[in-house]
Design a protein that fits this description.
Layout lengths: L13 H29 L3 H32 L2 H27 L5 H31 L5 H26 L3 H19 L18 H13 L2 H30 L5 H26 L8 H20 L12 H5 L4 H28 L6 H28 L4 H26 L1
Helix pairs in contact: 1-3, 1-4, 1-5, 1-6, 2-4, 2-7, 2-8, 2-13, 3-4, 3-6, 4-5, 4-12, 4-13, 5-9, 5-12, 7-13, 8-9, 8-12, 8-13, 8-14, 9-12, 10-12, 10-14, 12-13
């Protein structure tokens, strides 16, 4: 196996990597700007803030549940590079709707801006639903088998580094909605240019008759995949991971504002730490496994992740809040006695999370025929989205009834042990 970073020199990988990088950056620049703008500029109540964040997360995820089956069918019967270009064109329209919402919100228009922003988030969910199966399914078609794990790790690392950059930048420019609008359009254009450089990835198997009924197609897709024990276990383990992720992402901004008593720049920093940690974990696990696709480190990784979440809960619980009516900026925040503990525990959560999930994605794309990889990833996305939607709705409901964000962290710890049990069963069944 070549050094994974060497894949970045290949035309069969670099344009896809760049397109995914720019797309994830743009998604998170807009979503984080919107969430921070709503949290710090529109709402002034912790319940409303948490509910809005959970609703936005749920609306982003629902298209994965409804449309992943169709996306997988199309990706396995159509040139994947062509689909990528269509998806990137749609990004311009989505950003136009979202930018209009932000501009109207800044102008003080009631209700309509929130509707437009949530509509854009839903559109981004549709956008990601159709791109998601391709970014993994195209790798076995463009890369040698020994390079698939390295390529998967680089895609994951690049995704989370782009999330890092988009999240950090959003923390500094979210209040300037004109800057957000201009930058999202510029990045969408760059993404379309790189998408046009992705080499063809034509259909490999026989043509499919598309099932346009989303519920029936999803049921058939999942049923046709989940009866295979190894895929069932891998998909269930990944789904628990993303349910955990959805809970964490929903509670982070309100937790930072109302428990750590810090401003939007710190909320952006917390999300950024999480993102860069996952990127590090994605690279580390590739080095540990030496390109061999295996789940042997996944159980220990997610147990360690649970330990890091517990450490984060302790850090939050012992935090000294800012004086009443004030919020810590980044400079004040990092000089607080517990700041290092908060940061290190978050890094641990993210690094071990990346180490857990990357081998499982590589496993999905290499244990089925190449003409079925997109549908397998799509089946995984259907189940993942269901788990994430449930996680987001549970957070919204519990928060509405008074459960605090730091209390929800203990539920995340318990979920990590369920993921470890599933990963261990997969390891024993396949490795």
């Amino acid at each position: 196996m070549i050094n994974a970073l060497g894949l970045l020199k290949r035309r069969r990988f670099l344009p896809l990597f760049s397109t995914q990088f720019l797309g994830a950056f743009n998604d998170n620049l807009f979503k984080t700007s919107m969430v921070l703008f709503a949290t710090y500029e529109i709402f002034a109540d912790p319940k409303q803030e948490s509910f809005f964040n959970a609703l936005a997360a749920g609306l982003f995820i629902i298209p994965f549940f409804l449309l992943s089956a169709l996306a997988g069918q199309i990706a396995d019967t159509t040139d994947k590079a062509r689909i990528i270009r269509y998806v990137k064109l749609a990004e311009f329209a989505i950003m136009a709707v979202g930018s209009a919402g932000l501009l109207l919100a800044r102008a003080g228009v009631p209700t309509l801006p929130v509707i437009l922003m949530l509509a854009a988030v839903t559109g981004l969910g549709v956008h990601s639903t159709f791109f998601g199966p391709i970014k993994y399914a195209i790798l076995p078609q463009h890369l040698d088998e020994d390079d698939v794990l390295g390529g998967t790790g680089l895609v994951e690392a690049g995704t989370y580094l782009s999330i890092l950059l988009g999240t950090i930048l959003a923390g500094f420019i979210y209040h300037s909605v004109i800057a957000v609008a201009a930058l999202t359009f510029a990045v969408a254009l760059a993404g379309y240019i790189t998408a046009r450089q992705v080499p063809p990835a034509p259909r490999l198997g026989p043509p499919l008759t598309l099932d346009l009924n989303p519920l029936r197609a999803s049921w058939r897709l999942v049923n046709g995949t989940m009866h295979i024990p190894r895929l069932f276990l891998a998909i269930c383990a990944i789904s628990f991971f993303w349910a955990i992720g959805s809970v964490l992402i929903v509670i982070f901004p309100p937790l930072v504002k109302n428990v750590l008593t810090a401003d939007a720049s710190v909320a952006s920093l917390v999300l950024a730490i999480f993102s860069v940690g996952v990127a590090i974990g994605s690279v580390v696990i590739n080095l540990m496994l030496r390109g061999h696709i295996s789940a042997k480190f996944s159980p220990a990784s997610v147990i360690a992740m649970g330990g890091a979440v517990l450490a984060f809960w302790l850090a939050v619980k012992s935090w000294t809040p800012a004086p009443a009516g004030t919020l810590y900026g980044i400079g004040e925040f990092v000089h607080q006695p517990g700041a290092a503990f908060v940061g290190l525990s978050l890094v641990g959560v993210a690094v071990f999370g990346g180490m857990f999930v990357v081998p499982l994605y590589a496993f999905l794309t290499t244990t089925v025929p190449k003409d079925q990889t997109a549908r397998t990833v799509a089946a995984n996305n259907v189940v993942n989205s269901g788990a994430m939607t449930i996680g987001s709705l549970v957070v919204a409901g519990l928060t509405w009834f008074g459960v605090t964000p730091n209390d929800l962290l203990l539920a995340v710890v318990a979920m990590c042990f369920v993921s470890a049990w599933l990963a261990q069963k997969l390891h024993l069944a396949c490795d």
